[in-house]
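Please produce the structure of this protein holding iron/sulfur cluster.
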Amino acid sequence: MSYVKPKFRHPNLPTNRRGYTVADYDGAISTLCAGCGHDSISAAIRNACFKSAIEPHRIAKVSGIGCSSKMPTYFLGKSHGFNSVHGRMPSVATGASLANRDLTYIGVSGDGDTASIGMGQFVHLVRRNLNMTYIVANNGCYGLTKGQDSATADIGSIAKGGAVNPFEGIDLASLALLQGASFVARSFSGDKGQLEPLIRAAMAHKGFAFIDVVSPCVTFNNHAGSTKSYAETREHLAPMPVDFVPMRDEITTTYDPGTTQAVTLHDGSVIHLQKAANGVKTDDRTAALLRMQEARDEGNILTGLMFLDPNQADLNQVLNLATTPLNKLGKDELCPGSKVLKSINEGLR
Amino acid sequence: MKQIEGVNDFVVKFANVNGTGSASANHLFAKAIFRMGIPVSPRNIFPSNIQGLPTWYEVRVSKNGYLGRRGGVDFMVCVNPQSMEKDIAAVAPGGYFLYDNTKPLAPHMKRDDITMFGIPLTEMCMREYANPRLQQLLKNVVYVGAMAALIDIDFRVLKDLLNDQFKGKEKLISSNVHALEMGYQYATENFQCPLPIRLESGVNLASHILESDHILMNGNTAAALGAIYGGATVAAWYPITPSTSVVDAFAKYAERMRIDAGTGKKNFAIVQAEDELSAMGMVVGAGWNGARAFTATSGPGLSLMSEFLGLAYFAELPVVLINVQRSGPSTGMPTRSQQSDVLAAAYASHGDTKHVLLFPATPSECFEMSAQSFDLAEQLQTPVILMTDLDLGMNDWMSPPLEWDDNKELNRGKVLDAEGLDTAEKWGRYLDVDGDGICYRTLPGTHPSKGAFFTRGSSKNEFAVYSESGEDYVQNVDRLLRKFETAKGYVPQPKTHPPIEVKRRKTKLKIGALFFGTSASPAYEAVEMLADEGYPIDTMRIRAFPFHNEVDQFIHDHDVVFVIEQNRDGQMRQLIMNECQIAPDKLKSVLNYSGTPITARHIAGKIRETIGTKKAKVVALKREKA
Ligand SMILES: Cc1ncc(C[n+]2csc(CCOP(=O)(O)OP(=O)(O)O)c2C)c(N)n1
Ligand code: SF4
Ligand SMILES: [Mg+2]
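Below is the modeled complex.
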């Protein structure tokens, strides 16, 4: 158990513009190992939702199976959540979103859940540009089944038992880019300064927002020789800090000219990429792929916003879905009635 | 030679090559008989192939309105040299055979105990039409024209049908009518028309047929319409014969009936998923979030959906699955009909699971039960599987018209809205406050501070809190069993008929027959045959699982009960043995699993054998002598 929350809550906790305190975004007490990267992601999601002042009950949490997929229990206790089956969260999220397009969907998955058993569903979800935030807590192993290599384990990475991984690792962020994802980012569970604004931007994005988060497994994959340990990740991290300004907020922070670059989302929110002076372009898919591949070749972990297309049609648009959520439609809209049926019968005689 | 005789009562079979346009000509033939007011049931017996393999179309004409297969062929129309030899052999003595004699028939294939008609179909079409595609297509229409003369199809009806079919395409209409006339003329000039087997409107027909306003439609289209009327808004699927046309039809009707008038946007979503796991996942997700959702599939897809079905059972989510059964694994006979998913569907998934199954037997039941399954799934918060098959789903069946009661409301089951949550004394997602095993659910986004919970598989307590306690588990699965008991009161009752009176009863045994779906029509016909021979049989048509207590009672009330079904292992019999308190040796299987639908003659023969009727003894004796 990594942290125990005090029962007593301070009466003067700051509230967001909808009147919620950060505690209103808490979930149950985590049962993950102390120090597990996943808990930091849970905290980042909680903080991001608090800061963006999304009403907790207007968020739906979905996950597959794994330590990572348990996370939704540990944040946003006032939201409905669905711990589905291993590798199949994408389909559940798709169905849920079709049923009610008005909620904000946060999907949490693991590298096993997404890159192995769920690979098929994942790439198809990307293709469909479902309006959701999809976070992979990437520890390079199967935590819940006790540490086997996952498909994102880097080639040459050494497992706890000493075995060297002989297979090429799958880079989910590159894959998402290749499959046409409209928002692709990578981050590190230990970099809350970057992760929080990225999650906020992902939730504001209309379309599929993918964040691959390196999230060390302290129990099975945090030793020397593992490329996804805290130490290795920190050593090779090449972060691109970001800042997020929601649509309705005034831009108060001032940035020195030339040190930031603003990217505007569909809803008018702005992402500020800091220290991006070396001309990073987030609207160029090919350049993003190249940048990520180069970093990988050098053994570096490039983090930050890789690519964004705020205007790509999402699934709701592609399907020309009505603006009223399908789950709100009643008999009048749905059932054509006996008169119509009579004429159908006529046509069948 | 004594020719087969009969008005409005015979079997015609067409032997064609797949992909040559025979389907629409054969359909024209069957539909014309239907329009003449004579009961007809056409069946496509087709290969898993787009072009080139043999395909058959069997048309049953039955004055008494029996729509199942009878067995045997009285009249064969063959335009496929590949299958010609076997097709000739299949004709009953005294029957008829029509073929394309552009190429002469090999002498060894000639039979002198049947009447053979040669028509130079290919030659005629080569002469009349320049376009090679038309030459091929219209050959089929020429033989329909010849059949019109031979068995007295109303020519005006045929013409009307062509007019309907090709509305506005005058050229097509006239070339088709010309082909019909050519065939008609050839037959009248060369053969003695009409034959002793023929059609005649209004003659010899059972009274319930004369009074009816039947429609002709396939079960898949009916099930799709049921989904529209039942309020389905999300359809997720992966293509598989024979279920594909369910979603095709749903799409067609939805595009017509579910467009928002103001915006032109869609009040439905159809997603072609990447596989059946995903299709079912989407249905589960949509159901969890309060939309009525369904998928349609067949055997292999059902297998892939198993894990999710188990989750939906434990997480108590509404799911509607239309399973159009076919035979066995993918390669081989995927386009043949069976009822072989009964056990796989009833107990789909891991852990202790049982699912609600509905067994429609006609298109109008496909419609009703499909619509009803959306209510049931939400009322019972569980998967509901509509069990049809290829025979019912893809063939046209004469059926009572579809009916809808406009006063009927969509029954959304126990769902608490914001107000309900505010007034509820104590709420737990899995708290059985009503004692029927069904608890109150809430949908995401309903209330700012109440009713949120975490949906998972098995490990939870009554308040949806994660729990690995054995007690919580047992309490939960026992409640699910209680819910399954409750389901008995919700699902369609079995159908029985008053006992049959026979003139000279030949047996003291009390005999019963149980069947479901497409086994029903031939079973009823077999029962009538046996009643005529002095063996009365009581029938019960099962329409749902869980079984009503009447099923138990029916078995108790009889000395021997035949379970008639279309699979190898007697799956319905096994399910009954599992679920009812009965002595298994009372239940005798009557099975057919050849891929072509079971026939009345086959059923009657098996029952005769088992109870040792006089006719069975004669047949056995004959066999011995031979
Ligand atoms: C169908 C199925 N197969 C196998 C499992 C066992 N299983 C549970 S979690 C898991 C791997 C999870 O790995 P990952 O997604 O990386 O999550 P982590 O625990 O590392 O966060 C496996 C194989 C399962 N639950 N379901
Ligand atoms: S096993 Fe690894 S991934 Fe799972 S909770 Fe422990 S540290 Fe986290
Ligand atoms: Mg993992």
